[in-house]
Specification:
This is YCII-related domain-containing protein. This protein has 79 residues and is α+β, with helices and mostly antiparallel strands. The chain has one domain: Alpha-Beta Plaits (2-Layer Sandwich), CATH 3.30.70. 34% of the residues lie in helices and 38% in strands. Strands 2-3-1-4 form a four-stranded antiparallel beta sheet. The radius of gyration is 12 Å and the shape is globular. It has two helices and four strands, in the order E-H-E-E-H-E.
């Protein structure tokens, strides 16, 4: 089954701090809903852009997307 990365973008001088905080809410959601995967994170893209993300299985994506409203998504590649 394919894994999808749901992404939230944050921009501005506090973007990294906001993305880090948003990840805490994503982890709370995972704990409450007991999703199949628990891969989350946050990354600095540049000085004014950071992301928070979670990885879901394709069959879980639609209800999670509808509940959490990520800004975008992409295929997740295991490394």
């Amino acid at each position: 089954m394919r894994k999808l990365k749901l992404i939230w973008d944050f921009k501005g001088p506090d973007a990294l701090k906001i993305a880090e905080h948003h990840e805490k809410h994503i982890k709370e959601f995972i704990s409450i809903k007991k999703t199949q995967l628990n891969i989350t994170g946050f990354n600095l893209v540049n000085d004014l852009h950071a992301i928070a993300f979670m990885v879901v299985l394709e069959d879980e994506m639609k209800p999670i997307r509808d509940a959490l409203k990520p800004h975008r998504g992409q295929l997740f590649e295991d490394t």
